[in-house]
């Protein structure tokens, strides 16, 4: 599995291209303001993107959907509980003194227990509300192995956790999502967050001051 990451101002939000070495099939995760870099990575490597997968629908994680969807010609996936945020992108932007335009419609909603497949990899969808109602963890790994790497959006960071003071946020729910869903993975599991560097489940169990 190959992982390309890009982040640009003002939010420095991580967008990802995750691809299969063998088949060159891929998924794009959370295209935001760095979307041009993600599209360029796909084009330069000749990847066959299968879907745009959103971990949640806060402003910085979706502003690139309107460029990514027509460029890649693939469906956009989201948890249904975050549709109200996705549809309110203009209002979200105004909260930060910014402007944003409405994004293309969501094509598919995640179904509990139904994984998404690309190439030789499986994406297990774990609902992790708290930062927002429809937050999910995308647990990606080989179809023939239980090993996974976690793309957690803004649920968990290296040394921190997601904020819960935005619409739909709830601190107790967030902590429960982290401790019951994310911490169910082995300590060596790599965590790719929506902002900042990678970490591991074990490191956050041992050192995260919020947990």
Describe the structure in your own words.
Helix 1 packs parallel to helix 2. Strand 1 and strand 2 form a beta hairpin. The chain is built from six helices and 14 strands. With 211 residues, it is α/β, with parallel strands linked by helices. The radius of gyration is 16 Å and the shape is globular. The strands form three sheets. The chain has a six-stranded mixed sheet with strand order 1-2-3-4-5-6, covered by helices on one side.
How do the helices and strands line up, and which of them pair or pack?
Blueprint: E1 2-6, E2 15-19, E3 25-29, H1 35-45, E4 48-53, H2 65-72, E5 76-78, H3 83-86, H4 89-95, E6 108-109, E7 116-118, E8 121-127, E9 136-142, E10 149-151, E11 156-157, E12 160-161, H5 171-181, E13 190-192, E14 199-200, H6 201-207
Parallel strand pairs: 3-4, 4-5, 5-6, 10-13
Antiparallel strand pairs: 1-2, 2-3, 7-8, 8-9, 9-10, 11-12, 13-14
Helix pairs in contact: 1-2
